[in-house]
Amino acid sequence: MNPLTSSQQLLRYSIGLVIWLLGWCLLLFFDAHFDPVNLSLILVLTSALAALWLPLSVTLLASVVGLMAFNWSFVPPRGTFAIDLHQHTVLLIAMMLVNIIIAGLMVFLREQSRRAQAYARAAEELRIWGDKLRDATEPCVLLEDLHQALDRLAIGNPRHPVALVTIDSQPAAIDLPTSLQRIGSINPEHEEALRHCLRTGQALGPGTGHYQELDALYLPMRGRSMTSGAAMIAGITSLDAFPALTHAQALCDQMGAALERHHIQQQERQARDQAQAQTLRNTLLAAISHDYRTPLATIMGAASSLDQQGERLSDSQRQQLARSILDEADRLRRLTSNVLQLARLDAIGGKIQGDWESAEEIIGSVMHRMRSHDPQQRISAKLESNLPLLWGDSLLLSQLLENLIDNAFKYSPPESPVNVSAYLDKSGGDKNQLVLAVRDEGSGIAAEDCEQIFEAFQRGDHRKPGAAGGTGIGLALCRAIARAHGGELEFHATVTGASFECHLPLRAQPVNPEPDL
Amino acid sequence: MSLRLLLVEDDRELRATLREALLVEGYQVLTAASLAEAIAMYGQTQLEGSATQAFDLILLDLGLPDGEGSDLLVKLRRKQSTPVIIISAREAEGQKIRLLDEGADDYLVKPFSIGELLARMRVALRHRGNQVRAAVTRYEQGELVVDLANHRVSRKGDTVHLTPTEFNLLARLVRSAGQVVTHRQLLVDVWGQEYLEHTHYLRLYMGQLRAKLEDNPAEPQLLLTEPGVGYRLMETES
Fold this sequence. Notes:
The structure holds 2 protein chains of 2 kinds.
Chain A: H1 6-30, H2 36-51, H3 56-74, H4 86-135, H5 143-153, E1 162-167, E2 180-183, H6 188-200, E3 216-222, E4 227-234, H7 245-291, H8 293-309, H9 315-347, E5 355-357, H10 359-370, E6 379-383, E7 390-392, H11 394-411, E8 418-425, E9 433-440, H12 447-459, H13 471-484, E10 488-493, E11 498-505
Parallel strand pairs in A: 6-8
Antiparallel strand pairs in A: 1-2, 1-4, 3-4, 5-7, 8-9, 9-11, 10-11
Helix pairs in contact in A: 1-2, 2-3, 2-4, 3-4, 4-7, 5-7, 7-9, 8-9, 9-13, 10-11, 11-13, 12-13
Chain B: E1 4-8, H1 12-24, E2 28-32, H2 35-42, H3 44-47, E3 57-61, E4 63-64, E5 67-68, H4 69-79, E6 84-88, H5 93-101, E7 106-109, H6 114-126, E8 138-141, E9 144-147, E10 152-155, E11 158-159, H7 164-175, E12 180-182, H8 183-191, H9 199-213, E13 223-226, E14 230-233
Parallel strand pairs in B: 1-2, 1-3, 3-6, 6-7
Antiparallel strand pairs in B: 4-5, 8-9, 9-10, 10-11, 12-14, 13-14
Helix pairs in contact in B: 7-8, 7-9
């Protein structure tokens, strides 16, 4: 528990002294009016009050001295230690006993309450520390806080410097000198003990039951299954010098649990990334082995027909063949572009290079390009006014919209409208999202079929019917683009058709220039 | 006299196809399959500074067997303003922006259609020698008239009030009508060198301009966006 600081001690002694002085003044004041039996009660009261502030030994000493002085001053014959009456002897002995009992009780009580307070403080500190660790995305940044907390427990005494080590990566690498992250100064001897502490997950040093003869305390940061770090409090030769051992160990263990949790999360993320990379590669392979063959077959057929039968074909037939070469080449171009972007997203691990972009401009440029494939004016765009800016890659986002529009063309009857829109989704509380949506009014894709298209490409399994014509790779790319932006691609079946929505999180907006007039 | 073109492209099929198509359009086409060949055709003296230009326009591929097409662009731009259109299979926006900033007139990503190429060539040729000719001061397209000299903008006959910044931005685009102007060029020319990173200014002011000048800002016909690169003001029909 927290020993008192010297200034607190001085204050307590002063208060004790003042109480004794006051008591003595009262005795002198009432001396003329009361007999010694009554006066003695004032002495008992003074001694009891002083015991509230003074330590046990001083209280006892004070009461013995007080009693003797009382005998000298107030018990007849005055001015001597002799006692005239037997009853006064009994009185003095009784007072002595009462004083001792009261002092003992007071000190015991005080110690109790001090412990209760210390326990409450420690529990509160553990709770706050636990909250802090839970809220931290990187528990490593809180090592400095742990260092300070342990330093406080060692009362900031320079004779008890605190140091920490934690494992950066693999637990297997404990013995590599580079694998440890250090806070505070550590000499080679300390380092060896810290490593031992890390390896065994046991506390070492005085009061721990292991290596009691060490002159420092070594506390492991233990999680459920691994020890992620260790703390050292130097210059501790006995448990008395550091009574807060259990509390310090609890702080360290909380840190250990947080570090372990973080470590496991990191491993999970890596595994997920790897799995995702694998599915992307499968997707690419599926695309190359299947989706390229169909348009290439058409192009080869049409071109070889022009080459070999050219003279026997009518003008309109030649025109027709040239047209299909163009259309299929365009399909190949878009497919290639999708595959390349998927590969690029794969290569950069889904981390895009962003800039501030406006949804209006992205939709505008997409509309401009898609119009050439839209002789019947099926697409229309609708935007909410004053939409906030997006942080993202406009090329990728335009490609996402183009793929979705392409998709809508493919899966809704000719001449049915396709609507592109951008709006703010405020359903997420204070986390607004910007939504880019493409809706068609066809029979749509049944929800489970749609999920199949997504899924087929997730697995790289391309035999599903309905995933023909590169739709799958387009959707897979759309999803990858949405996720690379921290968002998600959602599919909703509407009353009139299908709706693909790309939900994008918003960032704090940049500062705009002063408006000019 | 027909216009002289230099086509630098190492792929034989594409070179032959483009050459035929351009000949049909009435251009006089010379071809080069490598950087060395292109420089030889140009003539060292020509490259290093002569008033007369050997070609009216250059179509330049980037990945050539003996070097980067962009080297020729850099050499050329030291002295001459011959329009250069980059034709490349590389789609990286970073490179696109860099080449446009280094003085390329346009950048076409392979594959492209002949129609697209011809349209870009027309624009580049129209801007040819802007440095010596009087600068463009008037832009008319559809219902929009921009008169730079008199600071007047009107739409459907009505005067449109633009703020000074909006006008400067529009004027910069008018001077390069039909051509891509990169974010960097716009930010430097309209706001100044220290505003290079403030792409969001462009988003804001282009939005305001579209709201004032376009029928349907969600589907602009005049102020076109080149995603990730810059903006292009629709070329005039004339």
